[in-house]
Amino acid sequence: MTPEDENMDDLSPNPKAVAYTDPLTGLGNRRRLMDKIRKLASERADDPAPFTIGIANIDGFKPINDLFGHAAGDEILCQVAHRLRACLPDGGFVARIESDEFAFVLPLVFEKKGAEKIGRMFKDVLSAPYDLGDRNVRLSASFGFAVYPFAGEQFAELLKSADTALYRSKRRGRGQITVYSEEIAEEMRRGTQIEQALRRAIIADEVACHFQPIVNLADGSIQGFEALARWTDKEMGFISPSVFIPLAEERGFIDSLTETLLKKAAETAKHWPQDLFLSFNLSSAQLIDPATAFNVLAVINRVGLDPRRLELEITETSMMSDPEIAAKVVNELHSVGIRVSLDDFGTGQSSLGRLREFAFNKVKIDRSFVSEITVDTSAEHIVRAILTMCEGLNLKVIAEGIETEEQTAKLRSLGCKSGQGWLYGKAVDAAATFNLIEAQEMGRNRAAKGFLVNR
User: Fold this and answer.
1) Sign of the torsion formed by the C-alpha atoms of 402, 407, 408 and 410
2) Rounded to two decimals, what is the model's pTM?
3) Which candidate, 57, 65, 56, places its Cα nearest to that of 132?
4) Smallest Cα–Cα separation from 437: which of 380, 428, 248, 42?
5) Number of C-beta neighbours around residue 327 at 10 A
6) Which domain holds residue 171?
7) Is 188 a member of any domain?
8) Is residue 195, in this structure, part of any structural domain at all?
9) What is the count of structural domains for the chain?
10) Which candidate among 203, 252, 356, 449 keeps its CA 20 to 30 Å from the CA of 318?
């Protein structure tokens, strides 16, 4: 019996077949999948020869329903079902188990490399255009695989392992393939542990704001500070923001974290001299939220910080998921006097185009170029080109990651006026920030007195 024949059995009109069939696609459903896996595991129980199960999830399927309607979504799901059924290897079985989620059993796939090979084949098949009559739509799919008995011996355990692998694929982006392993399971457990601790820390007000100076490269004077999140858990110790911020974004509570941090940062900045600005990072999730400008303004209005002293940093990557909404958010921020900077410039794929489409106030040159500027002529040429282009567009530029006097000298010679990095100070807490500001003010006062005495 071919894979197609086995799945077509589900089309039988008898009541039992109906109970085991997905009515939209004609594939088996979760119940049929469970029977298949249990039967295969039972057959191999005495001599547990491996087999593989997998889950495919269509990336970005919900917007298809929103844009083109549920009839178009149903048509795509039927085409996905047809493609998967047509390309199943010998003995394979496929079922639809969720709205845009399909599961398959691969009795003759025994290990990770084989699962990844099948995954790549499925991925290519599902990435071909879908015909909706008056238009073609392109989609991708993410995959998670689990190999019996290493990833579990019972249906629920195997499916959970495949789902864990799928979840990791989705975290890594679109069109990813992951095969379950203990290392992945531990990574996911660690992520959940950090998530729960971070949720508690937000409620307990334990996530802190530190501030790194942004300076005038001509004389080292402070122009403003970038707010950076810092969190030390009582049990796990210091957790890097590169870990907990993406986690908060991925698991849906970045808004509460951002509101907490922006409030703290604004309350601190309110007491700085009026000529110093506050720079604060927006997440990619906030750039696709139409309420972002309203939420940001609400926070700084409650605190009493002048919006003209706030500068929000966004990355090109974060804009690319929905440029239309991102542009709307940026324009709304501008309308109330908040400035917007493009962070990590030079690392994206279409930076020049983004500079033309979005009304940025500043560009921050990525540290990867700055770190090589004195030893790699190509890095120097890139920085020079960025500075020339930004001058033509009337954009201010900040160089990130400055660590040596030689880098500063080179940047100054190329015409860069502002920068930040360890050479000028690491991120420090609010009290230490005030000390830096006071030290600068005292230095200015001494210089002014000396000028008057020498006249």
Assistant:
1) negative
2) 0.72
3) 65
4) 428
5) 16
6) 3-180
7) no
8) no
9) 2
10) 203
